Amino acid sequence: MSKLLTISPSPHVHTSDSVNKIMYRVLLALVPALAWSVFMFGFEAIRVTLLAVAACMAFEFLIQKFLLKEVPQITDGSAALTGILLAFNVPASLPSWMIIVGALVAIGVGKLSFGGLGNNPFNPALVGRVFLLISFPVHMTSWPVTQHAAVDALTTATPLALLKEGVKAGQPVSEVMLNLPSNMDLLYGNMPGSLGEISALFLLLGFAYMVWKKVITWHIPVFVLGTIFIFQGALWMLNPENFIEPVFHLLTGGAMLGAIFMATDMVTSPMTVKGQLIFGVGIGVLTVLIRNFGAYPEGISFAILIMNGFTPLINAYIKPKRFGGTK
Amino acid sequence: MLKTFKLGGVHPAENKLSADKAIEKLALPKSVFIPVAQHIGAPAQALVKKGDQVKAGQLIAQSGGFVSANIHSSVSGTVKKIDLSPDSSGYPKQGIFIDVEGDEWAEGIDTSDKLVEKFEADSKKIIDKINAAGIVGLGGATFPTHVKLMPPQGMTAEMLLINGVECEPYLTSDHRVMLEKAPELLVGIRLLMCALEVKKAYIGIENNKPDAIAHLQKLTASDASIEVVPLKVKYPQGGEKQLIKAVTGREVPSGALPIAVGAVVNNVGTALAVYEAVQKNKPLVERVVTITGKSVAKPSNFLVRIGTPVQELIDAAGGLPEDAGKIISGGPMMGKAIASTTVPVTKGTSGILIMQDKEAKREQMKTCIRCTRCVTVCPMGLEPYYLMTVSDKKLWEKAEEQHIMDCIECGSCSYTCPADRPLLDYIRLGKGKVGSIIRSRKN
User: Fold this and answer.
1) Which of B208, B361, B377, B421 has the smallest number of CB atoms closer than 10 Å to its CB?
2) Model confidence pLDDT, tens digit, residues A66-101
3) What CATH code is assigned to B123-279?
4) Do A7 and B90 make contact, defined as CB atoms within 8 angstroms?
5) Interface ipTM
């Protein structure tokens, strides 16, 4: 026999799944929310998103090629994903140069300084977002009026900010609520906010798609959102004049975007379901605490980053249930 | 709800191309190479020498200890030489080369197809016959069957589990045996029950073989002691521990044998071999082997004499396809890639799978994105990504601490890894090393 055969250890078959497919499926899952934001913010949404994606990919390429002298891996989709998530986390009116700075921090500091894909302890897009929020607080909290709002203004406040201001001013929640959009509006995203976070409905659609395609499991989003619901619900039941009902918190700010797309970042979340429970509950609790008692109206990005920091510890101590194990 | 095991598991494409192909007797080869070590345990000691005339079914190598097995000639003819030649492991192994002349069987062997149902209910006699016939686990593990039938002191078997799962993709030999040799198989099961002195036997069969399930259910309808258990299709359900869990809900403790939960597991093919050994006096000299692959002209199930070169099966199945890239002895999940078609079919060869060029090569490994899939699919509840890392970094203590020795090498982790990481390769490396550290500690 003249033909050379391949020899390798088992297994000899492999799933058709790949890192690229995972990344591109997440990107696809973000499309409905992106389409909604284009509808709500118009060209600005396209500008921010394209710029963030292009900048993230460009920085990844440049840093890998010239600084790290590696073979650039921009086709794996992860830099594009960081870009789109960064764009989703900023106001649609953010100046272009700030987006580029955010992309540099996300990719350069958040991702590549730790060794690139798979090695970053913190969600790169959130590193970029929080850097921008702290560095440019005014720009990062000036929300453009949506295209279809019947108000004569350039910027407006998010529902969460309205709530925070009202409660700070000593107004009872029932009174503040009169100025807030209805839960129905919140659900499909008729409100100001960061570019990609406004439509809970379209984000949930992306969630369903990712669970269907087995890109992620349901655990982390459900743990995060469930915790927000239960914790906020408990506060609300204790004192409905100081705390708003829990569904409002699920549908506003970055709760959906964070729980579905940011907390589920594989690299920075725990490996076991039990670990994911701790992680998800931690994010939920911190989010509710920051939103109700912190200085910022919104806190899920901080909550996720803080729990990202606990992930290695969780992985070290929380082990899966072992077959035939004694414990 | 169909039963299955709880933890982990994957579902690779089944590709049971030869499922409807009846078992055919493969023509006798010109010569055979019969290794003296076809089982787990000590190699057998050759009893013949160059020039000896042997008959089919004649003992040609004596079991080398308690955990060992006799080897019989599968053909009649002349011993050409006793020499080293590679088996499916790729390493040269000692074995007996026999030139085939005619087909004469040793005395007392019943080669007819007549079903013999009656037997003497004597556990010791049955086990002795099984031992004498050189029967080993035909599912692929090749553990000597008589050892399994003699539980260690203080342990008793409560039930017999017959493994008709055949969870490996492509393979259909057990499936065909269940369809075509069911009456014989059931006698074999009763013999095993008698040998173990148990009152209950379960036959676990995955639901992708509804014809086998229905057939055996029909034949066992009047016998409450044998129960057919349909199982949800999930790999690696054919693993002993997974099968016990699926059928009985019992969990074999880490490091223990199935007997610790009162179970003894035997493969369908093994039960058939037991029937032939005890009822027909026929030692284990042939077995059913699936030859298959997407480009194979005639995927088939052949009844093959032990020692037959793999090339003979390939020829009978229509020759080696143009695009053959890899030949596997066994299934695609746990089988061994072989380097040459001269290697022989041995007692543990359940199938020969010819993969296409494009399926044969592995993808380039990428970085781990910590997607948790390897952890999710591990049927033993281990963390393959972590075991790979510690094996790579030679942190053997950590590997042992994280129960690397529990790994059953099913390959679900490597199969599922989207970054194409060779997790099992590294875990095997770590297992080997940790295993030898544990052994040296005992000495």
Assistant:
1) B361
2) 998 988 888 888 999 999 999 999 999 999 999 999
3) 3.40.50.11540
4) yes
5) 0.88
